[in-house]
Design a protein that fits this description.
It is a single chain. The chain has about 230 residues and is an alpha+beta fold. It has two domains: about 55 residues; about 150 residues, 2-Layer Sandwich (Heat Shock Protein 90), CATH 3.30.565.10. The strands form two sheets. A five-stranded mixed β-sheet has the order 2-4-5-7-6, with helices on one face. The structure holds adenosine-5'-triphosphate (ATP) and magnesium ion. The site of magnesium ion has 5 residues, from helix 4.
Length: about 230
C-alpha cells in the first residue's frame, strides 16, 4: 500500500505542477476553476502524505523516561496555534510537577492530535452558539498511572463515528481530514501499555489517556540488595 501511495503522490505532484501553470492562463473560465483544481490536488497530496507515514513500517518502540507534562502541554498549545487564539479559552489543570513515564516525542504527537481535533470540533461548531469555546487539559497521577484528559465544548463525537473511532480512515469527512489522527494516537498510547478512550456522557468530547509507569524490575532490585 505504501508503494502505491508513494507513486500516486508523485503523479499528483506532477499534476499539481501543471495546474499551477494553468493558473497563469488569463482566460476567465480557466481563472475560475484553476484555484479549485490546485486546492483539491493539494488536499489529495496531503492525504497521500499522511497515509504514507501510517502505512510505513511500525512506529519505533517508545523511548521512555519521566517526562514533565506541563511544558509538553504548553508546546502542544503553541504548535496547534492556540496560544494566540482569543476565541478559544485554554484551561490546563495539571497536578504540580506531574511526570509521565513516556516517550516525549510520541506523547507530544498524541496530545497534538487530540488538541487539533478539539480545535477543529470547536471551529466546526462555530461561534454564535452562546456558550464559551473551551479546551481543557487535566492531568493527575493515581499510584503508578498517569491520567490525562483532553476535553472540548464542541458538538461531541458523532454517534456513527464512535464505534470505530480509533481505527484508521474513520473520519467525519471534514475536508483535509484523513481519519488517521486517533488511530495513530491509539497506536502510540498502546505501545506504552496504556489506554485511550472517549469518556461517555460529557458535554462536548472528552478523551482520557491512561499511561502506566514501566514495571519496576524486581529481579534486578533483589540482585542489587543481595550484592549490597
Ligand atoms: N474532539 C472531537 N469532537 C468531535 N468529534 C471528534 C473529536 N475528535 C475526533 N472526532 C471525530 O472523529 C473523527 C476521527 O478523528 P481523527 O483525528 O482520527 O481523524 P480526522 O481528524 O478526521 O483526520 P486527521 O486527524 O487524520 O487529520 C473526526 O473526523 C471527527 O468526526
Ligand atoms: Mg484528527
Amino acid at each position: 500500500m505504501a508503494k502505491i501511495n508513494h507513486d500516486l503522490r508523485n503523479l499528483l505532484a506532477s499534476a499539481q505542477l501543471l495546474s499551477d501553470q494553468l493558473a497563469s492562463v488569463p482566460d476567465p473560465r480557466v481563472q475560475r476553476f484553476a484555484p479549485k483544481l490546485v486546492r483539491s490536488l493539494e488536499r489529495a497530496i496531503a492525504f497521500c502524505q499522511s497515509t504514507l507515514s501510517y502505512g510505513r513500517a511500525q512506529e519505533a518502540a517508545p523511548d521512555r523516561r519521566m517526562v514533565l507534562i506541563e511544558p509538553v502541554v504548553m508546546e502542544v498549545r503553541e504548535t496547534a496555534g492556540l496560544a494566540s487564539d482569543a476565541s478559544i479559552a485554554w484551561v490546563a489543570a495539571i497536578e504540580r510537577g506531574l511526570a509521565v513515564d513516556a516517550d516525549p516525542d510520541q506523547l507530544f504527537r498524541v496530545l497534538l492530535n487530540l488538541v487539533r481535533n478539539a480545535a477543529q470540533a470547536l471551529e466546526s461548531h462555530a461561534a454564535g452558539e452562546g456558550g464559551a469555546q473551551q479546551i481543557r487539559i487535566t492531568g493527575k497521577r493515581e499510584g503508578a498511572v498517569a491520567i490525562l484528559e483532553i476535553s472540548d465544548t464542541g458538538p461531541g463525537v458523532p454517534k456513527k463515528t464512535r464505534e470505530r473511532l480509533f481505527e484508521a480512515f474513520q473520519t467525519s469527512g471534514r475536508p483535509g481530514g484523513s481519519g488517521l489522527g486517533l488511530a495513530i494516537a491509539a497506536e502510540l498510547v498502546r505501545a506504552h501499555g496504556g489506554d485511550i478512550h472517549l469518556v461517555e456522557g460529557t458535554i462536548g468530547a472528552t478523551f482520557r489517556i491512561v499511561i502506566p509507569d514501566r514495571p519496576v524490575e524486581l529481579l534486578s532490585i533483589r540482585n542489587e540488595r543481595q550484592r549490597a
